[in-house]
Amino acid sequence: MPTTGVKVAVRCRPMSKREEQLGSKVCVSVNPAKAQITISDLKNERETPKLFTFDHSYGSESVQPQVFEELGTPLLERALEGINGTIFAYGQTGSGKTWTMMGIESDPGLIPQLNSKLFSRLREVKEGETSSNATVEFLLTASYIEIYNEVVMDLLNPSKKSLEIRESPEKGVFIQGVCEVVCKSEKEIMKLVHQGGAVRRVA
Questions:
Q1: 64: helix, coil or strand?
Q2: What are the tens digits of pLDDT across the range 95-108?
Q3: pLDDT tens-digit profile of 126-136?
Q4: What is the pTM of this model?
Q5: Distance between CA atoms of 144 and 147, rounded to whole angstroms?
Q6: Is the Cβ–Cβ distance between 115 and 109 less than 8 Å?
Q7: Which of 93, 134, 173, 174 makes a 20 to 30 Å CA pair with 165?
Q8: Distance from C-alpha of 133 to C-alpha of 42, rounded to nearest angstrom
Q9: d(CA 203, CA 200)
Q10: Angle between helices 186-197 and 110-132 (to 10 degrees)
Q11: Which value, in Å, is the radius of gyration of the alpha carbons in the chain?
């Protein structure tokens, strides 16, 4: 039975060129084996370093496939079993959220890898039903919203006014009027990701 609940992962990015030019020093050390991060006060060596423990910790040398395998794959497998899942990236501007979530074409982040693995798993299920004489049907829809200053906007239909988050006994929590696009391929999903990203507000 898969575990449920909230898990927290922390990923530390490498220093930027500007930080290196300024002579900045690294004050964070990462111990992935113990999922721990230690923060030291470089101006006061007598100060005891602060130790924090999470479910996962990734240093600046961590790579996208590793992050996906440990965070993305379990979430996807549970989703295929009917369990809701969310990956929420939080951090200040320039901390590496976009890199972890999107990456680049030659080194994709969580979203592109989840997209690719999702359709790969769906193909496996469809192929498996042929041998077992079972019938499995999937309906995959995509929405892309932005919550900015407590206003919910539909990035796939930016002409709409702000949307309302509602709750009902039948649907649970849902966004009334949000655009839901039926997708049949990885390319269709990524097209929507880029379409919505083009109108997203950037702080």
A1: helix
A2: 999 999 999 999 99
A3: 787 666 666 77
A4: 0.86
A5: 10
A6: no
A7: 93
A8: 65
A9: 10
A10: 160
A11: 20
